[in-house]
């Protein structure tokens, strides 16, 4: 378990909120288009990455991997971030944030579950109430920027209408009871513009164009040497 301190932006007020997170789950293969999903599965199989056991699939990682730090340390140069919306169950409510499923891509070819556990999962220190955004959920934008070779580039961008609806994602992973209190669920991501590649800095955001607000966070990636 890990305690994370957020600012909850809800009902016109910004309120400090500390949440005990007892489990973290990374959802994969959450796209709405089954044809595009299956095509991508075949592409990854050609690279040696195993077909998922189910679609969507829910990978468990240690809750202690969640961090709000502005830098993380990784082993070698084969990891990269990816922006994802984050749903957190708390006191019967669903709260919405944004995080990065930073993953070791070399290990991913060996085992996706293991690769998910290899890196910290940065998360932004701000949340919204899901009830305030559910009606226009599909219009919300996820976006990321990567600093590669000293140049900051747009790395990912897309609207949530390309992903499974949030309530369907929760019910398929956790049943009729929905997301349990103390669970942080990462909801999937978009393809990287120009392909997946490492960066020295990764920034990510969730943009609500209807209510005119954005949650942002970023972190530096510190590469540790692999000596043998």
Would you mind describing this structure in some detail?
With 228 residues, this protein is mainly beta. The protein has a single domain (2-224), classed as Fumarylacetoacetase-like, C-terminal domain (Fumarylacetoacetate hydrolase, domain 2). It is 14% helix and 45% strand. The chain has four helices and 17 strands. An eight-stranded mixed sheet has the order 2-1-12-9-8-15-3-4. Strands 6-17-16-13-14 form a five-stranded mixed sheet, with no helix packed on it. A two-stranded parallel sheet has the order 5-11. A hairpin with a 2-residue loop joins strand 1 and strand 2 (13-21). The protein is globular, with a radius of gyration of 17 Å. The mean pLDDT is 94.
Q: What's a quick, concise take on this entry?
A:
The protein has helices at residues 34-46, 105-108, 112-117, 166-174; strands at 2-10, 13-21, 23-28, 57-61, 66-67, 71-75, 79-80, 83-90, 93-100, 103-104, 121-122, 126-129, 141-148, 151-159, 183-186, 201-208, 213-224. With 228 residues, the protein is mostly beta strands.
């Amino acid at each position: 378990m890990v305690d994370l301190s957020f600012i909850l932006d809800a009902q016109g007020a910004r309120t400090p909120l500390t949440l005990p997170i007892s489990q973290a789950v990374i959802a994969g293969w959450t796209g709405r288009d089954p044809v595009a999903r299956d095509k991508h599965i075949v592409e990854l199989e050609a690279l040696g990455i195993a077909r998922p056991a189910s679609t969507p699939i829910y990978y468990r990682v240690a809750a202690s991997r969640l961090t709000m730090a502005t830098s993380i340390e990784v082993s070698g140069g084969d990891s990269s971030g990816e922006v994802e919306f984050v749903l957190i169950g708390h006191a019967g409510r669903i709260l919405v944030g944004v995080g990065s499923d930073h993953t070791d891509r070399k290990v991913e070819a060996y085992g996706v579950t293991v690769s998910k556990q290899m890196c910290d999962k940065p998360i932004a220190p701000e949340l919204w109430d899901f009830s305030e955004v559910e009606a226009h959920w599909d219009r919300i934008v996820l976006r990321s920027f990567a600093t590669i070779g000293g140049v900051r580039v747009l790395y990912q961008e897309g609207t949530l209408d390309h992903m499974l609806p949030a309530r369907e994602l929760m019910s398929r992973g956790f049943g009729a009871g929905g997301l349990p209190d103390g669970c942080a669920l990462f909801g999937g991501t978009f393809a990287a513009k120009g392909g997946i590649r490492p960066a020295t800095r990764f920034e990510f955001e969730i943009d609500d164009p209807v209510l005119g607000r954005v949650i942002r966070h970023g972190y530096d990636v510190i590469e540790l040497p692999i000596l043998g």
